[in-house]
């Protein structure tokens, strides 16, 4: 494990045992593909995508490892993409993996290939190959790494592939019965923690941010994936078209805990109730 010198990913700050307990990983860890796959699956199954802090009126979502670890690992909350990547990068750094970060332009639900590159994930180098390791895209995202190669494919209950566009951009696709869904396009230009701070500020404060005006919760579990956007709940099951349901205010308020496993403090529940009620 990487326990001698610190890096920009702050692996030395991670309580690795606490993280492994949080995601339910009971085996050993090493800088190998088996561990990478196991941690990826465990993380997405245990930690939901959660933008609730933005809706609770918090003017900052800190991205330092200590704050992210306190929220996600010790308090048992979820986190949005940038928080989860900060945590995952620190964990991989602590174990001894070699990796870089990149930014992707989300396409699903927008259809826009040229929107801001707000999604961040990791490319892990192992035995001369690179693996796309993305634990924070939520209900449509990968459940284990996929090799970064033209026409790479990940098959199973949830299937994905990677295609390369003439521009050179890679596109990750979720292969659904109703047809492939383009999740995001990306290049492999390296991004750094300082870049995350700028993206975090946009997501939290910009009027065109998709994350600061309605509840967005997502979780992947064996056999079912859930996505709540506002009051519309999407349920995705293997081999079936996505099912949608409109939640009433009571259902929406209880959804964080009952559907996504997020326990909020009583004061936060009251604030969220007022937010859902509107002006």
Automatic annotation (TrEMBL):
Keywords recorded for this protein, A-Z: Transferase
UniProt key word Transferase: yes
Keyword Manganese in annotation: no
GO molecular function, one term: acetyltransferase activity
Pfam families attached to this UniProt entry: Acetyltransf_2 (PF00797)
Family label: Belongs to the arylamine N-acetyltransferase family.
Protein name: N-hydroxyarylamine O-acetyltransferase
Record lineage: Bacteria, Bacillati, Actinomycetota, Actinomycetes, Pseudonocardiales
């Amino acid at each position: 494990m990487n326990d001698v010198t610190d890096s920009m990913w702050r692996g030395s700050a991670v309580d690795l045992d606490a993280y492994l307990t949080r995601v339910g990983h009971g085996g050993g860890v090493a800088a190998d593909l088996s561990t990478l796959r196991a941690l990826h699956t465990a993380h997405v199954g245990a930690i939901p995508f959660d933008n609730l802090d933005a809706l609770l009126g918090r003017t900052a979502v800190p991205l330092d490892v200590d704050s992210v670890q306190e929220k996600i690992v010790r308090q048992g909350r979820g986190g949005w993409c940038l928080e989860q990547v900060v945590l995952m990068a620190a964990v991989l750094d602590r174990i001894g993996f070699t990796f870089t970060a990149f930014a992707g332009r989300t396409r699903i639900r927008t259809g826009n290939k040229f929107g801001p590159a707000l999604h961040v994930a990791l490319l892990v180098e192992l035995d001369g190959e690179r693996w796309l390791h993305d634990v924070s895209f939520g209900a449509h995202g990968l459940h284990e790494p996929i090799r970064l190669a033209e026409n790479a494919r990940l098959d199973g209950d949830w299937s994905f592939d990677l295609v390369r566009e003439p521009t050179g951009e890679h596109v990750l696709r979720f292969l659904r019965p109703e047809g492939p869904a383009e999740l995001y396009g990306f290049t492999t230009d390296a991004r750094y923690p300082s870049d995350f701070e700028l993206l975090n500020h946009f997501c939290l404060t910009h009027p065109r941010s998709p994350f600061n005006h309605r509840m967005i919760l997502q979780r992947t579990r064996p056999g079912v994936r859930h996505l709540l956007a506002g009051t519309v709940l999407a349920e995705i099951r293997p081999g079936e078209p996505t099912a949608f349901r409109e939640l009433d205010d009571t259902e929406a308020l209880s959804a964080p805990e009952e559907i996504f496993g997020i326990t909020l403090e009583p004061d936060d529940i009251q604030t969220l109730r007022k937010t859902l009620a509107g002006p």
